[in-house]
């Protein structure tokens, strides 16, 4: 079975082709991605209307590119998958509309996929795919959750953020430091030559004893420090503040991941979502997990943030497990998107 997958939930248009046969691990045949980051940068964040329009411009050329990379045509596709939610409604409608229309025109089934399931299963595209069950730390721009994952489709949320996501904490702090959007990777780069101990920043809920998170207070503390150091602080001070911010976020993510591992008794951790690309987070998790005999799995660096490959992969894994039965598939050309949708909810 060859799955053509479409992602358009936010500011990345992604298309990919994954092949699945029997029990063998699904294989990525080709993928293409267009990031709108440069377009939104002038506004300091994603402008939903511009995002939708750009998805419209990009999605079909990307699909053509993927097919030509794979040396295949639309006739070689057996199933079309698309991100149904959560995300920006207008952006989701573009990918879903194109995917379902293609499926209807080719008389193929269409399979809606949960964006976070895509992130969660993205490590299956890596050279070292995980085995079930595992604890998942999902750290993206909009979500921060710890989950127990027993199989594809069997997700239990152990804890999540009560306010900002970890990616949001990175992005908002970076913005306060005058860095471009999305600030996470920029803040991480600035932090490389900073001293994390130069500032004492809060680690909210660190000792709550539950796998929950809160990052709003950190952003406020960063704001207070930014005001103190003035508009043109020396580069070293800014680097120190960046390093302290990153350290505070990483500390909390590591401590809560360990708590979830302890609570579940599982010895495997999967990290997914954009913040999973953070080098200090990977380092700290690797060290903490090695001590406890826990194996950690990550998506490839380029597949931490949004992409089409993870959507096609999630669909392929669902097909392989018989989870894409007639009930889940649409053949009537109809579709709906779910801008707000909790993973695990019906
Ligand atoms: P969601 O999946 O919850 O809808 P999203 O799709 O916008 O949100 P992702 O694409 O998974 O989120 O990740 C984007 C986030 O990852 C941004 O907040 C970005 O700053 C952050 N990020 C990316 N690389 C790094 C890095 N190296 N260090 C820290 N943060 C990073
Ligand atoms: Mg993005
Ligand atoms: Fe995402």
TrEMBL record:
Binding positions for Fe cation per the UniProt entry: 115, 119, 306
Stretches assigned to the Gcp-like domain: 28-312
Binding locations of substrate: 138-142, 171, 184, 278
Keyword terms of this UniProt record: Acyltransferase, Cytoplasm, Iron, Metal-binding, Transferase, tRNA processing
Enzyme category, top tier: transferase
Manner of cofactor binding, per the entry note: Binds 1 Fe(2+) ion per subunit.
Subcellular location(s) per record: Cytoplasm
Transmembrane segments: none
Principal subcellular localisation of the protein: cytoplasm
Cofactor(s) listed in the protein's UniProt record: Fe(2+)
Entry EC no(s): 2.3.1.234
GO molecular function, one term: tRNA N(6)-L-threonylcarbamoyladenine synthase activity
Catalysed reactions, semicolon-separated: L-threonylcarbamoyladenylate + adenosine(37) in tRNA = N(6)-L-threonylcarbamoyladenosine(37) in tRNA + AMP + H(+)
Superkingdom field: Bacteria
SUPFAM superfamilies per record: Actin-like ATPase domain
PANTHER family listed in its UniProt record: TRNA N6-ADENOSINE THREONYLCARBAMOYLTRANSFERASE, TRNA N6-ADENOSINE THREONYLCARBAMOYLTRANSFERASE, MITOCHONDRIAL
HAMAP family for this protein: TsaD
Protein role: Required for the formation of a threonylcarbamoyl group on adenosine at position 37 (t(6)A37) in tRNAs that read codons beginning with adenine. Is involved in the transfer of the threonylcarbamoyl moiety of threonylcarbamoyl-AMP (TC-AMP) to the N6 group of A37, together with TsaE and TsaB. TsaD likely plays a direct catalytic role in this reaction.
Family: Belongs to the KAE1 / TsaD family.
UniProt-recorded name of the protein: tRNA N6-adenosine threonylcarbamoyltransferase
Gene from which this protein is expressed: tsaD
């Amino acid at each position: 079975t060859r799955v053509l997958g479409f992602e358009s939930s936010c500011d990345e248009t992604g298309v990919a082709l994954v092949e699945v046969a029997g029990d063998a691990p699904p294989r990525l045949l080709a993928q293409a991605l267009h990031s709108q980051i440069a377009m939104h940068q002038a506004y300091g964040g994603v402008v939903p209307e511009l995002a939708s329009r750009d998805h419209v411009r990009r999605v079909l050329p990307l699909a053509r590119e993927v097919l030509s990379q794979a040396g295949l045509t639309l006739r070689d596709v057996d199933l079309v998958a698309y991100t149904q939610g959560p995300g920006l409604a207008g952006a989701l409608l573009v990918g879903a509309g194109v995917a379902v229309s293609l499926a209807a025109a080719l008389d193929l089934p269409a399979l809606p996929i949960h964006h976070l399931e895509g992130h969660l299963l993205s490590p299956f595209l890596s050279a070292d795919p995980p085995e079930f069950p595992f604890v998942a730390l999902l750290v993206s721009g909009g979500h921060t959750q710890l989950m127990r994952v027993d199989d594809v489709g069997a997700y239990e949320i152990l804890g999540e953020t009560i306010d900002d996501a970890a990616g949001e904490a990175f992005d908002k702090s970076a913005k306060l430091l005058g860095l471009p959007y999305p600030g996470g990777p920029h803040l991480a780069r600035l932090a490389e030559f900073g001293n994390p101990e130069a500032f004492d920043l809060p680690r909210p809920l660190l000792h709550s004893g539950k796998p929950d998170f809160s990052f709003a207070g950190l952003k406020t503390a960063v704001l207070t420090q930014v005001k103190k150091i003035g508009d043109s602080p020396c580069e070293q001070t800014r680097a120190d503040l960046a390093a302290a911010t990153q350290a505070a976020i990483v500390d909390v993510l590591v401590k809560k991941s360990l708590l979830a591992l302890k609570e579940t008794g599982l010895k495997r951790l999967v990290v997914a979502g954009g913040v999973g690309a953070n080098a200090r987070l990977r380092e700290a998790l690797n060290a903490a997990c090695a001590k406890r005999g826990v194996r950690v799995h990550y998506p490839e660096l380029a597949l931490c943030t949004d992409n089409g490959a993870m959507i096609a992969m999630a669909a392929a894994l669902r097909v392989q497990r018989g989870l894409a039965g007639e009930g889940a598939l649409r053949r009537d050309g109809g579709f709906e998107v779910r801008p707000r949708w909790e993973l695990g909810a019906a």
